[in-house]
Automatic annotation (TrEMBL), chains A, B:
It holds the Pfam family MeaB. The gene is meaB. Belongs to the SIMIBI class G3E GTPase family. ArgK/MeaB subfamily. SUPFAM superfamilies: P-loop containing nucleoside triphosphate hydrolases. It comes from Mycolicibacterium arenosum. This is Methylmalonyl Co-A mutase-associated GTPase MeaB. Keywords: Chaperone, GTP-binding, Hydrolase, Nucleotide-binding. Residues 41-253 form the AAA+ ATPase domain.
């Protein structure tokens, strides 16, 4: 199938064609696909938090809430250790089972395959594909233990951090830098002991609104959806430009991190053969680049 | 004075000439000074931690320990909010008073003047100047609340994180990413309650050796110096290359962050006029650069 045929099939409801397009924008054919699609915009919501906090359950009830409004929803689960090659459907996620047969819900794993910066490269293009296929809302789930969240925060509006009551999650979230990127904090399983104390502790660490939810029973979800809406409505050109700036920097850093000559430069600096300023500058001189270090991105 | 005259004066013991050279390598004349000096190597020790942890006290006793061995010591205090223009002597630091009149100890504040990435640019050159002026050991103090530590960790071997007993410092250190860059953790004021508990808590978070010290009484300093020596002796070509790689990436990121066209690109992306991949790629095309975005660094 040509790219135009894939787009037509995906727009006619073929999830297989949609999946193929999403794989293509992670390949050297990205520009070709994006050009054929044109530019499209969707609402992007980031959901992050430590393992076990209940992100998938929270997402499942959020999906239901948006479906009740008649919106089409795509879920991208970013899993650096995903065993799926290129991102298979997450049919094994019990919590999502209710949505598996809903044609207006697409659930997909984005495997970053261990590439540093892979996420920064893959996600903006995937969002454009999903928006072009008339998904109104794109929910991005990250595992919340590394760099991914900062990159997702540059794309998402808002970023929701899901934590459980107790000091453990709060410390882990602080350590991973989650509190700095949080636009909204949701304390899930808030019927457990210590939820109020956790809310108080977190108020000392972040200015973001902090909500208590029990996702498995749907408690607090109306308020969470309202908080997400309120944050989105409050978006400004300045905030959009700040997010775009972060995305550009993430991509640029990703481009230099994946430069084939970086290890040789590092060794030369370590051995005293070249100073670090000259080495860094050489990353920007075309003599060392096949025209453009970001050429693989375009 | 010419640069050659400044170098001669500094080598003859003029701290004023040394200070002038350190200022010059933060200016567009950096390359000129570095070329005149040639390449020199010093041992670099990073000291970081939350405000109030006792970093200056710890450094004062470390300086005394190295002086007893006959080594010349320079201290660079990185203070992003420093009121000193270009970095004055820190004569007001009471703890350092003992060393103020020691000709073999140089104490200087590096003001990064709010430039993003300023530290990544300023510090390697400053270390080269100090090494050329026969300082054997360079101790770099950072405030331990931001990005500075990651950049210093790329230069220092080892990075020592100073904390106090109690959960507060541990959480703050985790939040700032200090535990990830720590080669050695020193629990200062370890005569206070809770020191052993803090050691246990931190062992769960880091593999780095954890020492208890009371810097104000000199307790545990012999062990700290031994741990610093042991870490330094265990250095390998691979570790040196990894640090060089981090320095190169920091400089490259700093170069794109300070690009004059970055804000305009971000606005264009936010307004949908250009996609983020094209915007990032344009940072690497010479058409948008006056030859080289790192030209100000050279």
């Amino acid at each position: 199938m040509t790219i135009e045929e894939l787009i037509a099939a995906a727009r006619n409801g073929s999830t297989r064609a949609a999946g193929r397009l999403l794989s293509l924008v992670e390949s050297p054919r990205r520009t070709e696909v994006l050009t054929a699609l044109g530019r499209h915009v969707a609402r992007v919501i980031g959901i992050t938090g430590p393992p076990g906090a209940g992100k998938s359950t929270t997402i499942a009830v959020l999906v239901a809430a948006y479906r009740e409004r008649g919106l089409r929803v795509a879920v991208l689960a970013v899993d650096p250790s995903s065993p799926y090659s290129g991102g298979a459907l997450l049919g094994d996620r019990i919590r999502m089972a209710a949505h598996i047969n809903d044609a207006d819900v697409l659930i997909r794993s984005v495997a970053t395959r261990g590439h540093l910066g892979g996420l920064a490269e893959a996600v903006p293009a995937a969002i454009n594909v999903l928006a072009a296929l008339s998904y109104d809302v794109v929910i991005i789930e990250t595992v919340g233990v590394g760099q991914s969240e900062i990159e997702i925060a540059a794309v998402a509006d808002p970023t929701v951090v899901v934590l459980n009551p107790g000091a453990g999650d709060a410390i882990q979230a602080a350590k991973a830098g989650l509190l700095e990127v949080a636009d909204i904090v949701a304390i899930n399983k808030a019927d457990r002991d210590g939820a109020d104390q956790t809310v108080r502790d977190l108020h000392a660490e972040t200015d973001a609104p902090i909500l208590k939810i029990v996702a498995s029973r749907g408690e607090g979800i109306v308020e969470l959806v309202d908080a997400i809406d309120a944050h989105h409505r409050a978006d400004t050109p300045e905030r959009r430009a700040a997010r775009a700036r972060s995305q550009i920097l993430s991509l640029a850093l990703s481009a230099v991190r994946t430069r084939p000559d970086l290890d040789a430069l590092a060794t030369a600096v370590a051995d005293g053969e070249v100073d670090v300023y000259t080495a860094a500058a050489s990353l920007f001189t075309s003599a060392n680049v096949n025209e453009n270090p970001l050429s693989t991105l375009q």
